[in-house]
Design a protein that fits this description.
mainly alpha; rod-shaped; transmembrane helix; transmembrane; membrane
Length: 96
């Protein structure tokens, strides 16, 4: 009997609340657009770093240089690979 009364009261309260409609927060589209810009900048910087590292290796090899800074070049290439991967992951998470 008490359970039936609680059930009826719960039904009345839920019926009054209704079904709220979801709404995007203010400036949500601008934040998503900014995120897309950052994703593209990260992808571009990663590809640029990989290209720079490969070009620097080739330049020093063809000019007979002794690879004066192999750590710096390898770091640029590794950083480019990480940045490009991060940009791709961000793009997948955002769903663009």
């Amino acid at each position: 009997m008490i359970l039936a009364a609680v059930h009826d009261t719960y039904g009345i309260v839920v019926a009054q609340v209704g079904n709220p409609t979801p709404e995007a927060p203010p400036m949500a589209e601008k934040v998503m657009q900014l995120g897309r810009y950052f994703t593209w900048m990260i992808l571009l910087s990663g590809v640029t770093a990989i290209t720079y590292g490969g070009g620097r290796f080739a330049w020093e090899k063809w000019n007979g240089g002794g690879l004066q800074s192999p750590k710096m070049i390898a770091s640029a290439m590794a950083g480019g690979a990480v940045a490009t991967s991060a940009g791709t992951i961000m793009n997948a998470v955002i769903g663009a």
